[in-house]
Amino acid sequence: MSAIQFILQCIYFLLPAYFANMAPVIFRKWFSFLAGPMDMGKTFRGKPILGKNKTFRGLVTGILTGIGIAFIQYLIRNTSMAHYLTLPGLDYSLWLHIGFLLGAGAIIGDAAESFFKRQIGIKPGKPFIPFDQTDFVIGSLAFISLVYFPGWHIVAAVLILSIILHISFNHFAFWLRIRDEKW
Ligand code: CTP
Ligand code: MG
After folding, report:
1. What does pTM read for this prediction?
2. Does the CB atom of residue 117 touch ligand 1 within 6 A?
3. Which residue positions in the chain have pLDDT lower than 70?
4. Is 112 near ligand 1, meaning CB less than 6 Å away?
5. Residues near ligand 2 ion, CB 5 Å cutoff
């Protein structure tokens, strides 16, 4: 396997998590009935538990987006492109598990990071590098390992790749004016 194929397989594996992580930003103006904060505005040790930027809209759109992407991966699983891109042993007939676990893991991993940001006094939306770039990957890898564990070399590779990809995406979203913060 070439290095390029290895990198592409890592990205393809985590596509449902990447899209789930982007979903809250993409759907930010939609589903207003889900716009309430997941922590219900409550505090812990005098700090917001998660903060106002972690909404039920993010949770729901993230999980549904993760499932949608995994379903597309299931539909195209027999193409030669999908064979090239799929990690050995990953079976997309489990698309519902894969999509749900990567999607929910991404959103919950990100929410867990927000909890620590709030506790150390970082305001919602302010950067906390490199955790903003890796929180959702750690969450989605933890959740997906219930049905598929890709090996530690892949875990290490996707963490590094995700930092690069996420920073690029956030800058792009800032440039498109759908994100207020560059990082
Ligand atoms: N978002 C959301 N619900 C979530 C996660 C994200 O509605 N569960 C939306 C919010 O509008 C948020 C944006 O997506 O501002 C970007 O998310 P992210 O960068 O993860 O959060 P931050 O704004 O940086 O907030 P925090 O400091 O809590 O990480
Ligand atoms: Mg975050």
Report:
1. 0.91
2. yes
3. none
4. no
5. 110, 113, 132, 135
